[in-house]
Amino acid sequence: MRITMPDSTVIGAAAPRVRFAPSPTGFLHVGSARTFIFNWLYARHNHGTMVLRLDDTDVERNTQASVQSIFDGLRWLGLDWDEEYKQSERLDLHRGQAEAIFAKGLAYRDFTPAHAGDDNQSSSAQGAWLSNPGMRELSREESDRRAAAGETFALRYRVPRGEGRVLRFVDSVYGSQTKLADEVEDFALLRSDGMPTYHLASCVDDADLGISHIIRGQDHLTNTFKHLLIFEALDAPPPQFAHLPLLVAPDGTKLSKRKHGPVVSVTTYRDAGFLPEAFINFLCLLGWSPKDDREFMTLGDLTAAFTLEGVNRANAVVNFSEESPFDAKAVHLNAEHIRALPVERLASCLQPFFEQAGFHATPEKVLAVTQLIRERIKVLREAVGAADFFFAEELAPYDPAELIPQKGDAALARRVLEAAQQVLAATPFDHDSLDKALRDAATQLGLKAGQAFQPIRVAVCGRKNAPPLFETLVVLGRDVCLKRIGQALTKLA
RNA sequence: GGCGCUAUCGUCUAGGGGUUAGGACGUGAGAUUCUCAAUCUCAAAACCCGGGUUCGAUUCCCGGUAGCGCUACCA
Predict the structure, then answer these.
(1) Which of A16, A192, A262, A419 has the fewest beta carbons under 10 Å from its own?
(2) Which bases of chain B come closer than 7 Å to a protein CB?
(3) Does the active-site annotation cover A491?
(4) Positions 92-111 in A, CB within 7 angstroms of strand B
(5) Region(s) of chain A under CATH 1.10.1160.10
(6) CA-closest candidate to residue A357, choices A386, A335, A379, A331
(7) Protein A292 CA to nucleic acid B56 C1', in Å?
(8) Considering only residues 385-404 of protein chain A, which place a Cβ less than 7 A from any atom of strand B?
(9) What count of Cα atoms within 13 Å lies in the side-chain half-sphere of residue A246?
């Protein structure tokens, strides 16, 4: 296959083909998302092809909801893929290849009933389990006879034994890896219900789809020896492997949906108001670095900088807790990306959050508000709480004591608010005019700006901490400001 | 139990035979400011342990320890 690139260079067989192969057994979690991102970056950096393959051979555990959740997550990330497959639609290929392997004598039928759970303490005391007694040695005739009689069986790989065979591959991240074939157990290719196992289906598809690089979690590092054996039985050259360090929870264990819940789901980040670019940026810094001091990186920066050589070998902790479900660094990077976004784009990101909160949010107003809060929010969702008073018809109840400035009393607050009423009624409603008029008024009252502005700010916003006063007044408009100051005066009465 | 992988501030990481071991987040202090943010400055904070190699190891080697992964007819 030859692909003509936009810059019209022709890439030959060297153009990599990578794949992301999630199994739909739950929501898309951050570890999977990172694997997807690294594959994507590798593909784009090298002008290769990104394949999405749903590894859905575990019928028991697959759900449609999970498929949906994975696509939701991937769509949100905004990273595309070039080809899409479902393993469940390729079962004939898997079974055919299993038969071919069996025909070559590289696999055998195991009629031992599947045993559930971990009742093999006795064998673990001795060492590793390698095969079920008697099954490997069954003659072809005997095996055929029992199969014909309707006995169910699993198909197992006949791992080379007693030859001292060394299995070897060079991992792009972990370097040279070797293992004695004698230590690899006779793993299953086909289950007794005829369904392919993950190992078989995955390798058959990787070979068939011409995958050149397998970039996946380190939990598969030792499985790779089995996969080498399968590729060999398939007469297919093994792809290049690159294993990624695992993402772990603060307790050190691998991130899991079961154990850690929705805090590891991609959609949780989306709903909290992370920007996809920020989320991707954060995930990339877990187990990879550009080897310079850059941390804030756009998708373009990441694509340009990403190499497998830059991947680390040690597991990375995603630092979340009960109190703060998001890693502080993720939050910080998100705030940076929020500030880097053009206001118009940020405003349209904020729009749905405001609408969801039930605000009457016209695009014009949202744009004006966005300018005032963009340095004050770290995740989009916070905008709702930070800007509610811009949209509310009536201010939420607040403590009138807030109206009283430091070293002042209620009488002082009243004087300030009354002066403000006059000024606001008579001054053109723009930033500079209000700035001058309000400062002059403060001077006349013999007050410092801070003292004078607090009552006004609280009257108008219903809280002490808010965006700068004059901009806020302008966005709110004269009528609303005067009305709220009037209400504040009644509170002080 | 067996096999494998890993080990630098609390966290993410840079670095590498001789360095004041660098950056970022977080934390603390200060500056600035109409509050809050943002911004800026400063501070505290790390080479798992033991051997070896070497003039010299945090860096290379071995051992230990710890953590993680795999050890399913899950993926």
Answers:
(1) A262
(2) 1-8, 10-15, 22-26, 33-39, 67-75
(3) no
(4) 110
(5) 257-340
(6) A386
(7) 29
(8) none
(9) 12
Q: What residue is closest to B70 (Cα–C1')?
A: A222
Sequential pLDDT tens for chain A (493 residues): 333 333 333 444 579 999 999 999 889 999 999 999 999 999 999 999 999 999 998 777 888 889 999 999 999 999 999 999 999 999 999 999 999 999 999 999 999 998 754 444 444 456 778 989 899 999 999 999 999 999 999 999 999 998 889 999 999 999 999 999 999 999 999 999 999 999 999 999 999 999 999 999 999 999 999 999 999 999 999 999 999 999 999 988 888 777 888 889 999 999 999 999 999 999 999 999 999 999 999 999 999 999 999 999 999 999 998 888 999 999 999 999 999 999 999 999 999 999 999 999 999 999 999 999 999 999 999 999 999 999 999 999 999 999 998 888 899 999 999 999 999 999 999 999 999 999 999 999 999 999 999 999 999 999 999 999 999 999 999 999 999 999 999 998 8
ipTM: 0.95
Q: Which nucleotide is nearest to A467 (CA to C1')?
A: B36
Nearest nucleic acid nucleotide to A319, CA to C1' distance:
B11
One of 1.10.1160.10, 1.10.150.110, 3.30.300.130, 3.40.50.1220 is the CATH number of A257-340, namely 1.10.1160.10
Quick one: which of A214, A267, A217, A209 has its CA closest to A234?
A209
Side-chain half-sphere exposure of A268, counting CA atoms within 13 A: 18
Closest nucleotide to A196, Cα to C1'? B73
For residue A259, say whether its CB is under 7 Å from any atom of strand B: no
What is the distance between the alpha carbons of residues A37 and A31, in angstroms, rounded to a whole number? 10
Give the β-pairing of A240-244 and A213-217: parallel
A39 close to A83: Cβ distance less than 8 angstroms? no
Cβ of A62 less than 7 A from strand B? no
Of the candidates A19, A44, A20, which has an alpha carbon nearest to the alpha carbon of residue A32? A20
Please name the residue that has the structure tokens 């005067």.
A482
Q: In chain A, which residues fall in CATH 1.10.8? A: 343-392
**CB-based contact A50:A190 (threshold 8 Å):** no
How many Å does it take to go from CA A384 to C1' B3? 53
Q: Which nucleotide is nearest to A292 (CA to C1')?
A: B14
Q: Are A426 and A455 in contact (CB under 8 A)?
A: no
Among A86, A257, A329, A483, which one carries the catalytic annotation?
Answer: A257
CATH of domain A15-84+200-247: 3.40.50.620
User: Is the C-beta atom of A297 closer than 7 angstroms to strand B?
Assistant: no
C-alpha closest to that of A475 among A354, A393, A369: A369
Residue nearest B36 (alpha carbon to C1'): A465
Q: Is A455 (CB) below 7 Å from strand B?
A: no
Select from 1.10.10.350, 1.10.10.10, 3.40.50.720, 3.10.180.10 the CATH code of A394-493.
Answer: 1.10.10.350
User: Would you state the CATH architecture of domain A343-392?
Assistant: Orthogonal Bundle (1.10)
CATH class, range A92-117+131-190: alpha beta
